[in-house]
């Protein structure tokens, strides 16, 4: 008896079974839909101003949009918002303190030109930038010839101290002593001296550039003695300490003041070409280069 088997379904030799076509990819969302600006209600604006948070309104729409697209939890959104405000207030407070201290706004640590040929002890400079000398009530003498950047470095340390919330006052030596002389005439000398005694960082720029008379030497002596081991003083000068002594009218007071000053001071000696020459305006500035490009078009 013959058994009949069903014949197999015919297939093309060497051809794989066809695969289903892939589903079409979804169309990308338009770029404008990624972060959409969120309008802030007038009531919210009024509430923020009453809470003295009005400056947050500058970035609030963008922050709201970022929170929406990033699905931020409420507490993370508030943390981001308040961090913005704290940063802004810290920066504003530092600017106001620097202005009150009479620091030059352009002479900050990040603006120093490291390509300059001016030479000084970089390890000591790093130590000074840590501001540990302030917590230990030590002094700093920044010495060197004219134009090497002594005033810049002193201002930079002042700005760093202001950012750490130290009280700072900077004044050129000749102006300081003239002001104290005028204070004697209007009977406010003691008050002015008390202010100088209390400041946490006193910066006296260009000491002994001119000779100091008896009154000026006495004022310098009192400042150094009262602040000795109590608060920090930075002094910049073109003269070494022995030369400073020869510029003061009373040798005994001068010797006593300089001896105390040096006994608690780091000495940063700056040498090299004039740093001021690097700050001159040049033809190759960005504005001039843009003008040249426009002329060539």
Can you put this structure into words, describing what you see?
The structure is a single chain. The chain has 297 residues and is α/β, with parallel strands linked by helices. 47% of the residues lie in helices and 9% in strands. It has twelve helices and five strands. The protein has helices at residues 42-50, 60-70, 74-100, 122-129, 132-135, 150-163, 173-185, 189-198, 214-227, 241-246, 251-263, 286-296; strands at 139-143, 168-172, 201-205, 232-237, 265-269. Strands 2-3-4-1-5 form a five-stranded parallel sheet. α3 packs across α6 (150-163) and α7 (173-185) packs across α8 (189-198).
Helix run count? 12
The strand count comes to 5
Span between termini:
101 Å
> What is the string of SSEs from the N terminus onward?
HHHHHEHEHHEHEHHEH
Helix percent band: 40-55%
Entry keywords:
9% strand, elongated, five-stranded parallel sheet, disordered C terminus, 47% helix, 297 residues
Write the layout of secondary structure elements.
Elements: H1 42-50, H2 60-70, H3 74-100, H4 122-129, H5 132-135, E1 139-143, H6 150-163, E2 168-172, H7 173-185, H8 189-198, E3 201-205, H9 214-227, E4 232-237, H10 241-246, H11 251-263, E5 265-269, H12 286-296
Helix pairs in contact: 3-6, 7-8, 7-9, 8-9, 9-11
């Amino acid at each position: 008896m013959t058994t009949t088997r069903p014949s197999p379904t015919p297939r093309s030799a060497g051809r794989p079974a066809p695969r289903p076509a892939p589903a079409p990819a979804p169309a990308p969302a338009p770029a404008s839909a990624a972060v959409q600006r969120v309008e802030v209600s007038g009531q919210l604006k009024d509430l923020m101003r009453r809470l003295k948070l009005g400056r947050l309104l500058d970035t609030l729409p963008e922050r709201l949009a970022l929170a929406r697209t990033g699905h931020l939890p409420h507490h993370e959104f508030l943390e981001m918002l308040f961090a913005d405000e704290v940063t802004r207030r810290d920066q504003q407070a530092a600017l106001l303190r620097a202005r009150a201290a009479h620091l030059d706004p352009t002479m900050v640590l990040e603006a120093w030109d490291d390509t300059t040929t001016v030479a000084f002890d970089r390890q000591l400079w790093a130590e000074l930038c840590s501001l540990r000398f302030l917590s230990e009530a030590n002094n700093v003498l920044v010495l060197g010839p004219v134009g090497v950047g002594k005033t810049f470095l002193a201002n930079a340390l002042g700005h760093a101290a202001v950012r750490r919330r130290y009280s700072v006052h900077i004044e050129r030596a000749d102006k300081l002593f003239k002001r104290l002389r005028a204070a004697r005439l209007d009977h406010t000398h003691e008050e002015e001296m008390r202010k100088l005694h209390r400041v946490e960082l006193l910066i006296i720029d260009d000491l002994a550039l001119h000779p100091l008379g008896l009154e000026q030497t006495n004022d310098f002596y009192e400042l150094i003695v009262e602040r000795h081991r109590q608060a920090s003083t930075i002094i910049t000068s073109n003269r070494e300490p022995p030369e400073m002594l020869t510029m003061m009218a009373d040798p005994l007071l001068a010797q006593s003041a300089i001896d105390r000053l040096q006994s608690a001071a780091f000495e940063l000696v700056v040498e090299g070409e004039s740093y001021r020459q690097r700050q001159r305006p040049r033809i190759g500035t960005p504005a001039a280069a843009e003008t040249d490009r426009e002329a060539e078009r």
